[in-house]
Amino acid sequence: MKALVYYGAGQQQWEDRPEPKLSAQTDAIVRIENTTICGTDLHIMKGNVPTVASGRILGHEGVGMIEEIGSGVTEHKVGDRVLISCITSCGKCAMCKRGTYGHCAYGGWILGNTIDGCQAEYVRIPHADGSLYQVPANADQESYVMLSDILPTGLEVGVLEGNVKPGCTLAIVGAGPVGLAALMTAQFYSPSRIFMIDLDDNRLQVSASLGATDIINNRDGNAAAEVMSRTKGVGVDVVIEAIGTPSGWDVCENIVAAGGNIAILGVHGKSVTLHLEHMWKRNFTMTAGLVHTSTIPMLMAAVQAGRLQPRKLISHHLGLSEMRHAYDVFGHAASHHALKVLMTNDISISGHKDRAA
User: Fold this and answer.
1) What is the DSSP pairing of strand 340-344 with strand 314-319?
2) Burial class of residue 144 in the structure, from the number of CB atoms within 10 Å of its CB (0-12 exposed, 13-18 middle, 19+ buried)
3) Cα distance between residue 11 and residue 115, in whole Å
4) What is the average per-residue pLDDT within 284-301?
5) Mean pLDDT computed over 269-277
6) All domains of the chain, ordered by start, with CATH?
7) What residues contact residue 298 under an 8 Å CB cut-off, 6+ apart?
8) pLDDT of residue 348
9) CB 252 within 8 A of CB 239
10) Is the pTM of this model over 0.90?
11) At what angle do helices 223-230 and 246-255 cross, to 10 degrees?
């Protein structure tokens, strides 16, 4: 099969790799139909995620068709179309029983991290019963790819951990796909005002179309002062950090209101400075961590009901064989006006029908 393989910072190849095989009776083999690139994949490509070894197939998002299952898989069958969660859950360990699937003792975020991932023609999914979701026959399949990671991450790690409430004020620092996902899902909870902060005018305009009330370009480094001015020196109740850079953190630290919350979505590859000499008296709460994807069923229902439209996050459609070009587009988002780049499997696979049979 063909796959996108990571070989260290700044190095990747689209190359032939052996097709995955079942290694446990709870595994499933999924033929990828649609996949995409995450901001975390860009952090990996910069060498910021040391758990990803050279030779790893990247990717942790996708929708596909089950081609093979182990005898221990009871909730899915060959031929089912499934949504792949970015988090692998055994469903039985202490962490899973607490609902903290991101810290599953036998899974968690492993796809495209410590085991081979979804940016390939086939992927092996461990603990398939807890890690795959049935895609309804009439579903918008492309929209469902957005439910693998960014929408549950924006909702769980950003909106819910940040404690967004009706009438509160909210700022999202970073208008990339996960920041936009936080913007979309925050509106389930009716904040009175939503500030979006970024350097990319196109993404800020998209933010406005998706419900942001205030957009601020931080190219001059004045975003914090602008937020404080517009809030008459109070700041905002909830700040969602969705960049993963020291400069993004600095904005968050300077705009959170007394008694407010900072929820960190970004993957941080460099140290940041927490100015406790100023912050200790603010009674603020800070949260950070992995998504658990426990909200995927709720988000699927919202999509099916038309209350959530993830397709608006897709800016480009490419073939799976164009994976390296897709990375270039997504990695230079401002130049290409890129949000999520969706890849569709455009490769004819020899033996596909035989495997499925």
Assistant:
1) parallel
2) buried
3) 18
4) 97
5) 91
6) 2-149+292-356 (3.90.180.10), 153-288 (3.40.50.720)
7) none
8) 52
9) yes
10) yes
11) 20
